[in-house]
Each structure stands twice: as structure tokens, then as C-alpha cells.
Design a protein that fits this description.
This protein is an alpha+beta fold. It is built from twelve helices and twelve strands. α6 runs antiparallel to α7. The longest helix is centred in the middle third of the chain and has 54 residues. The chain is rod-shaped, with a radius of gyration of 48 Å.
Length: about 500
């Protein structure tokens, strides 16, 4: 399927996507919140880290100022210089603790109370996140005391400072981070969307277009999708879809030919049934002729005509694609085998040797007419396979073996012909696909398999034998114990 073939189908799909959110839109709506969530997950630890670094910077500056203030003699630092030092580090007061004594090194406009205390010595990541977000949400002029380690002899250092400058710095950092995050989010969302679109959405749209086009004309081979060379799940889906479409196209072509053939056969059988009915009237008159030879062959002729008329009648309903349900009853196998041989024209003096190895008194729980049709189809196929051999091809033989294993009757029809070709075995019991010889249709085996399965049985080709061997297994019907005893008592 070319791109031009897909174009009309894609055009028909576009109005549906305008009324309803398509796969691309859903993908975009899914990508944007995921990227925003990722940006939030990046922002929260980033603002907490910014808050912690600023407080640690205040402590570092306070330690430097503490060294200057502590080095000067007591009371020798002028108030103006102390204020300049505090202003340079954005603090209102600096104090250290040495031993049991807390010493205020410098102070300027100390508040009456401290709003928040932050001890950076045991600050955890979660505490940094909570405290930073809490500070950003607050308003007003609050003060805070920051406690941290001191590199000198002091145990720790304290810095009293205002929260407002730090809050404004956090707002600026958030705006900058938000701008960068939005830019990265847009770029990431675009890249993810394009990648997913080309990797998944376009192939899925191609699959959808192929399904829609194939639904419109399933008998057109031009609507079969051309698989790509992808090795992932989409590639597997494309190849499986192509195989399914090819099988369906082939099946529909066969069904169309079979429907046309069935209509023609129904018309022929309608007239043939009338002709056979007239022949049956003549055979009834022959039955009254006293000639011994006529009396010998007339019953067989009548049974053949009756079977032919019944078969024509069932063929008229072939359009239902269903054989009549078998009328099962115990059938002695040997007379059926003998009738199959006579019908197939395999006389004792024929070039094909006939061997029958049937257990004495073997019976099968089956429909006698349908069992006759199954065996006749197999025997005719075997005879045709042997006739296709060259004149000096060796012994030509058809063998029928019958036995019983418990409640299952087994029949085997074998020949010494060329066997079944390997390419035919896959579709052996399918009409028009299981023909093993030129000019054959494969209907014989297909009909035989359908009749055997109607008896809950099975037919299969036996591997590893000379020529071809078909094994038929037909189980007895389950019988209730009371019914069995009643039949035995009446017998």
C-alpha cells in the first residue's frame, strides 16, 4: 500500500479526530502535566537548597565579623563600626557561646522577640523544604535567629536577621527557575511528543487507516498493509495484520468461487434429480424381469440410484454449508467395504490389487450412507494416485484395515502410490487447497473430514508409511446404562 492509497482514508479519519480528542491530543495532554510534575519535583529541592545556602552564607559572614569583633578589646569597637559590620552581613546582632557564657559581640535595633529559630547544625532535607516553603508563604516583617557552628573556640554562633530580604531573594530565584523550567518543559514536552508521535502515533494511524480501508473492500489485495521492518511490537502487529488480511482475502475469494460453484451445482442437481427419478422407475420395472442375472444386479442398481437421488437432494441444500446430521446405528463394516470396491470399479482382475483386512464382525456406530461416502472418497483418491504412476512402477495396491480398540473403531485406507506432497499437507482437508494431483479440487478429502467430524471422530494422514495412509477413528456414542439393559433385555 502506497502513501497515495492511504491518503483518502486518512482524509476520512480527520473529521472524526476534530470532533473527538485523538491519540495525538491525548498524548500531548499526558506529556504536559508529566513535564510540569517533573519541574515541581526539581523546584522543591532547589528552593530548599537555595534557602539553606543563604543561611549558611549569613553564618559564614557572621563568623568573619565575630573574629574581628572578638579580637578587639572589650568596649574598643565604636558603635558606628559595629553597625557597619552588621549592615555588611545583613544582621541585627551577632552572639557566640563559649563554655557556659553567651557573649553578644554586636547589636543594632534588636527586636523585642524573635519570630523563628533555625539551627543549621541538625537541619535535615525535609526540614529545609518545610521551612523554606513556609517562609515564602508568610508576609510581614519577621525576624529570625540562625544558629550554626563556629570554627574558633566558640561552641556555636548566633545571627539575628530579617526574613524579608531573604524572602525577596527566594522570589527572584523562583522566577528565574520558573522561567528556565518552563523553557525546559516546553522543549522536553516537544521532544517527547515528537518522539512518541513518530514512534507510536504515526504507525498506529497507519494501522488504523489500513483497517478502515480493508473494511471497505476486504476482497481487494491492494488494501493489504505493507509491513515495515520494525522488530518491536508494532512491527509484529503489522506483520500479523498483513498475514491475517492475506488469509482473509484468499478465503473470501475461495468462498466467492465456492458460492458460484454451489449455485451452478444446485441447478445441475435439480435437473439431475429428475433424471435419476425416471431411471429409478425403470429400475423398478427391471426388478420384475425373471432373468436371474437381472435379479442379481437390479437391487444393486436400485440402491445406487437411491443413494444418488439422496445425494442430489442433499447437494441442493449445500448453500447452507452444512451436511445433514448422521443417522447413527451399528453398521457391519465388511458389506460397506465390498460395496465401495464395486462402486469404485476395482474388479478382481483390475490392475490394482485390493486387500481387505477387517476384523470378523467389526461394527461401527455410524451413518451407513455417510460412512460409504467417506470410504469411497478415500478409495477413489488412492486409485487415482495409483493410476498416475508409470506402467512399470511396481505393485499397485489398496489396503483397507479395520479394527476396534475399546469403544473406538479404527479404519485405515492406504495405497502404494507416490504419497501426499509436503506442500499439500498443511491444507490437506480444505476444499480447493488440499488437492494433491493436477486438476484436483481437494473436495473429496474435505467432504470426508466433514463427515467424520460429524461423528465426533477424526481423520488424519499417518506419517512414515509407504504411499499415503489415512486413519479414521470413530468412537461409539455414550449410552446410558438403563438404555443398554433395556435393549439387551428386548434382544
Amino acid at each position: 500500500m502506497t502513501e497515495n492509497d492511504n491518503q483518502p482514508i486518512l482524509e476520512r479519519l480527520r473529521p472524526k479526530r476534530s470532533r473527538r480528542l485523538g491519540l495525538s491530543g491525548k498524548l500531548l495532554l499526558l506529556t504536559i502535566p508529566l513535564v510540569m510534575i517533573a519541574a515541581v519535583l526539581v523546584y522543591v529541592p532547589a528552593i530548599a537548597n537555595f534557602w539553606s545556602n543563604r543561611l549558611n552564607d549569613r553564618l559564614a559572614a557572621a563568623n568573619t565579623a565575630a573574629l574581628v569583633l572578638d579580637a578587639a578589646p572589650s568596649g574598643m569597637v565604636p558603635d558606628s563600626l559595629a553597625r557597619q559590620i552588621l549592615t555588611s552581613i545583613n544582621a541585627r546582632g551577632v552572639a557566640i557561646k563559649m563554655g557556659q557564657q553567651r557573649r553578644l559581640l554586636a547589636s543594632a535595633d534588636l527586636p523585642a522577640s524573635i519570630d523563628h529559630d533555625f539551627d543549621m547544625r541538625d537541619m535535615t532535607v525535609w526540614s529545609s523544604i518545610v521551612n523554606s516553603l513556609k517562609m515564602m508563604t508568610e508576609t510581614g516583617d519577621h525576624t529570625m535567629r540562625v544558629i550554626g557552628p563556629s570554627p574558633g573556640r566558640a561552641q556555636f554562633i548566633e545571627v539575628v536577621t530579617d526574613e524579608k530580604p531573604l524572602r525577596r531573594a527566594m522570589y527572584r530565584f523562583s522566577r528565574n527557575l520558573l522561567g528556565v523550567s518552563l523553557l525546559l518543559a516546553v522543549l522536553t514536552a516537544a521532544l517527547v511528543y515528537l518522539a512518541l508521535h513518530f514512534l507510536f502515533v504515526r504507525p498506529m494511524r497507519r494501522l488504523t487507516a489500513s483497517l478502515v480501508g480493508f473494511h471497505e473492500n476486504p476482497e481487494s489485495a491492494a488494501r493489504i498493509i505493507v509491513p515495515s521492518h520494525r522488530s518491536d511490537e508494532i512491527g509484529v502487529a503489522e506483520r500479523e495484520l498483513a498475514d491475517m488480511q492475506r488469509d482473509l482475502v484468499s478465503m473470501l475469494h475461495q468462498k466467492s468461487r465456492l458460492a458460484a460453484l454451489g449455485l451452478a451445482v444446485s441447478k445441475i442437481n435439480h435437473d439431475l434429480r429428475n433424471l435419476l427419478a425416471s431411471s429409478q422407475l425403470l429400475s423398478d420395472q427391471l426388478a420384475s424381469v425373471p432373468d436371474p442375472r437381472v435379479q442379481r444386479f437390479a437391487p444393486k442398481l436400485m440402491r445406487s440410484l437411491e443413494r444418488a437421488i439422496a445425494f442430489c437432494q442433499s447437494t441442493l441444500s449445500y448453500g447452507k454449508v452444512q451436511e445433514p446430521a448422521p443417522d447413527r446405528r451399528p453398521v457391519v463394516v465388511e458389506p460397506v467395504i465390498a460395496e465401495v470396491r464395486e462402486t469404485a470399479g476395482l474388479a478382481p482382475d483390475a490392475s490394482i490389487t485390493w486387500i481387505s483386512a477387517i476384523e470378523r464382525g467389526l461394527t461401527i456406530d455410524a451413518d451407513p450412507d455417510q460412512l460409504f461416502r467417506v470410504l469411497l472418497n478415500l478409495v477413489r483418491n488412492a486409485a487415482q494416485a495409483l493410476e498416475s504412476l508409470a506402467g512399470d512402477a511396481g505393485v499397485r495396491q489398496i489396503r483397507i484395515i479395520g479394527r476396534r480398540e475399546g469403544s473406538v473403531a479404527i479404519l485405515e485406507v492406504s495405497d502404494t502410490g507416490p504419497g501426499v506432497p509436503a506442500k499439500v499437507r498443511e491444507h490437506l482437508f480444505e476444499a480447493f487447497r488440499g488437492a494433491g494431483r493436477p486438476g484436483g479440487s481437494g473436495l473429496g478429502l474435505a467432504i470426508a473430514a466433514e463427515l467424520v467430524r460429524a461423528h465426533d471422530g477424526d481423520i488424519q494422514l499417518v506419517e512414515g508409511t509407504l504411499g499415503a495412509t489415512f486413519r479414521i477413528t470413530i468412537p461409539d456414542r455414550p449410552v446410558e446404562l438403563q438404555t443398554f439393559w433395556n435393549e439387551r433385555a428386548s434382544a
